[in-house]
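Okay, is this right?
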Amino acid sequence: MKFKSKDWIEIVERDFESAWLKGREILSEKNFNERYPIYQYDCGQEHPVFKTIQDLRKVYLSLGFREVVNPIIVEDVHVKRQFGKEALAVLDRCFYLATLPKPNVGISSEKLREIEEILGRKIDSSEVDRLRSVLHSYKKGKINGDDLSFEIARALRVDDVKSTKIIDLFPEFKELKPTPTNLTLRSHMTTSWFITLSKIVDKLPLPIK
């Protein structure tokens, strides 16, 4: 079905959730027998890199090697232990991971009025207490970001669309800046190997392979 993409881009900017729900109006699925042409799907084509990995994997397993999964995310202290004085030069080419801090979100009387406008009704003191409790639990890390919208919706007894609009009222969520950690993406496989070996050295007979 044809549609004007510019119009939908404007709708998305105004209200993403409603645009998402209205998508079914322009994307209709025909019955299989009414589709033309009816395509025949052949087997896919494997990538040479992954084919090589699989071939090598079979070879090493046939030679008696044990397969393990080494950590992909490692603390920079492990790099320092391995490389000593060269560690800073090595860490210079590592990618550090960052996290978003949990904002301390307050509910002012003005925010309450804006929330009531979204809900189209007054909210009582018990609902305000539940909302504050949800935001406080989020700050403490007891509620994950993925569950925040659901928990707000449950606290105020509304749907997810209105819950998302309520979250959008708080600038604290929009102004978050990543905070760096001491976790890095693995740059040298040997760094991960030392971690793995330290965990299994007392559990497997030597030599470990």
